[in-house]
Amino acid sequence: MRRYLSRNPELIITLIAGYYLLAIIVRLVRSPGLEIDESQAALSQFFQWGYGSQPPIYDWLQLGLARIFGMSIATLSILKNTILFLCCLFIWLTTRLLTGDRFLSGAAALGVLTLPPVFLMAQRDLTHSLLAILAVALFLYTFFRTLQRPSLGAYLLAGVAVGLGTLSKYNFVLVPLAAILAVLPEKDLRARVLDWRMLAAVAVSALIVLPHGLWVLNHIGLATGQTMGEMTEGHDGVSFHGVYGALDLIGAALKGSATTLAVFALVFFKDIRRILPASNQWTRITGRILLLSLLIVLVIVFALDVTNVRQKWLIVYLVLLPLYLCLKIHAAGVEVAPKLPGMVAITSALTIGVLILLLFRGLVAPYFGRTSLVHIPYDGFAQAVRRDGFPEPQYIIASSGIVGGNLKIQFPKATVFIGNPATDDAPSNWPAGATVLLAGTDLEGNMPANPGAELAAMAARAALPAPADIRHLEVPYYGSKAEKRHAFYYAWTVTAAK
Q1: HEC per residue, the chain
Q2: What is the pLDDT along the chain (498 residues), one digit of tens a residue?
Q3: Rounded to two decimals, what is the model's pTM?
Q4: Strands 485-494 and 435-440, bridge-based pairing
Q5: In degrees rounded to 5, what are phi and psi of residue 100?
Q6: CA-CA-CA-CA torsion for 379, 385, 387, 393, nearest 10 degrees?
């Protein structure tokens, strides 16, 4: 491996692509059930300018794949892992652009895999945040390319990257803002920011964001309510909100960067004294972008009395860390080629180890009585429901987004509604003779006290009459030695003929 890498450092990108192919296979094998974010992504059934608290691009991509290949765990996993691979690729391209070093580019791409939200959270359950880090990687490439070789085309591409990034995750916008501020102290590059072509870039990004921006203005509560609720979670039990939030921010930043820093320190242990003081123009700019992004987040924490900062939110900024470290290594003049095989070994152990743990959790844990969301037997429920003698449901009314997403996987041709105005587009007049399945379950697997009332409320949300024939099932968990069962309640409705 060492000899082959020394001649073909581009092999790193092929290895990363192979890893993400393995990740797709593992996801297909480990469980037919969905995690929380996955279930929300599975409900991308309609084209809309907005989808609640998340910008729309991820939903558009998922919707497009589902229209072509059908909704399934495979389409969910392929989209997610393709996004992650492209993020590594653009960090690789950016590092090569700034250093011309193919070995260092490989180290930067591997560095992305050492970020906990990438090697752990993404494989467990992340969606929109992953698109945001790809948007950051794309923006960095277009940004530095514009600084090096300014042209109208380069500025326009950077504007497109900013527009797409804004539609991927709202907190992305801090990165281009920090990037502009980071360039201003550099006298020879300051003119790039003040160039008239910057106006063209801003115009392009504004045009891309405009339709969704208008949607946000008309649905401001829907767009901000959930996020603000998560950011101020535990607000009432804390006296000094900003201070508490700042400590949470620092803790999340340390957790998000610790593994990456540890891997680089281990691989480049003998060269740390040379690397730490090393600096050049690109390290200064990249370091400022990272630091300013986190400082702006800190200002927002105090301004909005934020008490809760999640590690996955900071991945949008921490994805710069591997690039920054590699630029420092390049500035120090450290030879990377001899270190690359060791970094491949460590990163492989980390990433593949997590895949093995997730596979164990999905396939083996139920035999020890440990079950979670991904083990809820929706497939067994679907098989039982199909034996009722009704046609395949054209519509499904689900009790929650998690239930709805999982039932969409089991009945991919059905349209699923959950009573959420952000994702639902329920017909005002139901088509005559349509088969509708109303289904619900408690995520702990317990039967509610009055399942009929629950189903009636679900029917009312969809402007349907309350069902009369209430049914229930107890479906065994796969692999559970104690024959643990999960309760579902449901009813069939056929819309009236006109």
Answers
A1: CHHHHHHCCCHHHHHHHHHHHHHHHHHHHHCCCCCHHHHHHHCCCCCCCCECCECCHHHHHHHHHHHHHCCCHHHHHHHHHHHHHHHHHHHHHHHHHHHCCHHHHHHHHHHHHCCHHHHHHHHHHCCHHHHHHHHHHHHHHHHHHHHHCCCHHHHHHHHHHHHHHHCCCHHHHHHHHHHHHHHCCCCCCHHHHHCCHHHHHHHHHHHHHHHHHHHHHHCHHHHHHHHHHHHCCCHHHCCCHHHHHHHHHHHHHHHHHHHHHHHHHHHCHHHHHHHCCCCCHHHHHHHHHHHHHHHHHHHHHHHCCCCCCCHHHHHHHHCHHHHHHHHHHHHHCCCCHHHHHHHHHHHHHHHHHHHHHHHHHHHCHHHHCCCCHHHCCHHHHHHHHHCCCCCCCCEEEECCHHHHHHHHHHCCCCEEECCCCCCCCCCCCCCCCCEEEEEECCCCCCCCCCHHHHHHHHHHHCCCCCCCCCEEEEEECCCCCCCCEEEEEEEEEECCCC
A2: 667 776 778 899 999 999 999 999 999 999 889 998 999 888 889 899 998 888 999 999 999 999 999 999 999 999 999 999 999 999 999 999 999 999 999 999 999 999 999 999 999 888 999 999 999 999 999 999 999 999 999 999 999 999 999 999 999 999 999 999 999 999 999 999 999 999 999 999 999 999 999 999 998 887 777 777 777 765 555 556 678 888 989 999 999 999 999 999 999 999 999 999 999 999 999 999 999 999 999 999 988 888 788 888 999 999 999 999 999 999 999 999 999 999 999 999 999 999 999 999 988 888 887 888 899 999 999 999 999 888 899 999 999 999 999 999 999 999 999 877 666 767 767 888 889 999 999 988 889 889 999 999 988 888 888 898 999 999 998 876 657 899 999 999 888 755
A3: 0.93
A4: antiparallel
A5: 70, 10
A6: -110
